[in-house]
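Run log // design_07
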């Protein structure tokens, strides 16, 4: 049991810090967006590089923040019937959902994302725009985010399983 607590604490801590670090990606994203809007609207001087850079920054923020969002319960839930269940019923539904949907989805993201990134690295893929930024670094983030999301999901799954079997929250 102590090993599970250490595992949960470690994964929660990793994803907490990953989320805190990558939330700062929003700062340069906002700055370059403002730069583009001001340049385009006031100086009639649009740029080529802002669109692709902002897409990559947003993708980085979104993917690396996904496990942090899961840790803090920020993902969207469809709770038409869920809200009427008991806490134990909710935990049971969560366990089933993790097994049927979440973990298979994460496995596919890791598996296909790794293939996707490897192909991109093999050809040192760049964008086909005039700007030509490299795409392999952002594609590498896909399987990394998949791993972080899977690990965070496993800690939540363990907590829910403990609650269903023991009838109480797991002590930290």
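design_07 sequence
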């Amino acid at each position: 049991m102590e090993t599970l607590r250490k595992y949960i604490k470690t994964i929660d801590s990793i994803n907490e810090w990953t989320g805190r670090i990558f939330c700062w990606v929003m700062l340069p994203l906002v700055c370059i967006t403002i730069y583009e809007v001001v340049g385009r609207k006031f100086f009639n001087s649009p740029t080529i590089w802002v669109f692709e850079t902002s897409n990559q920054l947003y993708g980085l923020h979104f993917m690396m923040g996904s496990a942090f969002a899961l840790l803090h319960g920020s993902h969207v839930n469809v709770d038409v019937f869920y809200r009427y269940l008991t806490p134990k019923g909710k935990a049971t539904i969560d366990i089933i959902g993790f097994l049927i949907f979440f973990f298979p989805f994460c496995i596919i993201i890791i598996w296909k994302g790794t293939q996707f990134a490897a192909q991109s690295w093999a050809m040192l893929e760049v964008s086909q725009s005039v700007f030509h930024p490299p795409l392999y670094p952002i594609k590498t983030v896909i399987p990394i985010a998949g791993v972080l999301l899977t690990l965070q999901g496993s800690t939540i799954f363990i907590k829910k399983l403990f609650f269903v079997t023991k009838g109480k929250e797991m002590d930290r």
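The longest helix spans residues 87-122.
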